[in-house]
Amino acid sequence: MAHVNKDEAAAAEASRLPLSERMAHVHISRISELPRIELYLDQVLAIVAGELAPVMLPGEVVITGSMVNNYVKQKVVRAQRRKRYTRRHVASLLFVTAMKRVYSIGQIASMMGMIDRSDVDVSALYDEVVALLEQSLAQRFCDGAPAAEPRLTEAPAELAHVLEAAVASLAAKVYVEQTLALQDERR
Prior knowledge:
Blueprint: H1 6-24, H2 41-52, H3 65-73, H4 87-99, H5 105-117, H6 122-143, H7 157-186
Helix pairs in contact: 1-6, 1-7, 2-4, 6-7
């Protein structure tokens, strides 16, 4: 095992501090914070990319028009009306784009199907999932170890367990990617 001196360890911790601080303050818009007006595709792409920037690697393609069309064709996201997207479309695309970092489109479609089949307030569930992701990222980056995760209360038990696990795995992936990217920067 390589020996790390105290100066190197202190330098590593100092370079990690801004990342931990940034992740402790990630905010993804709630339904009520998303635009109320219907949007065109280029506006939706900009919003999704901006919202998910903290969990992406620099230079990574977040979402494209082709991806959105593919999600609609596969019925993962509902089709837009008159080439305009609602805040529900934006929320769905935020969820799908974030989860695609860890899961296949087929798996995400299954999660979306579980949501659709449940008798749940989708807006309230979206807000809970986003809050859970923010908390999971903050916990993961602040001390490196997962703490007791808050539970989703808006969903039936099976759906809640699936979504909680999905969020935890996304937070873990972001932690690993960002930590490795930071290590690469130090070299």
